[in-house]
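Next comes this protein:
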Amino acid sequence: MADDPQEKAKLVEEIIEVIAAEGMVDRTKVTPDATIESLDLKSVDIVMILTALEEKFNVYIPMDGSLQDAKTVEQLIGAIAEYVMKEREKQ
């Protein structure tokens, strides 16, 4: 499943939607190369985004490691997608 490009693309799209909605950012600005700083996302916004994603995907996403180091939307999505896919594989 984790290797299914369509499944991953769908997951990435869902994560972007949540980032845009919870971070109150224009959806068109949430691009892979956008930085978290350029989207003006504060740590409280990131927490809101993670909380919404945890509820949506029924998965715990710790705010550490690759997530804490993420500087771009692509890195943020990659870190979140990794947690979601790991959880899905367990089910």
About this structure: Residues 55 and 81 are 14 Å apart (CA to CA). The chain has a mean pLDDT of 91. The radius of gyration is 12 Å. DSSP finds four helices and no strands in the chain.
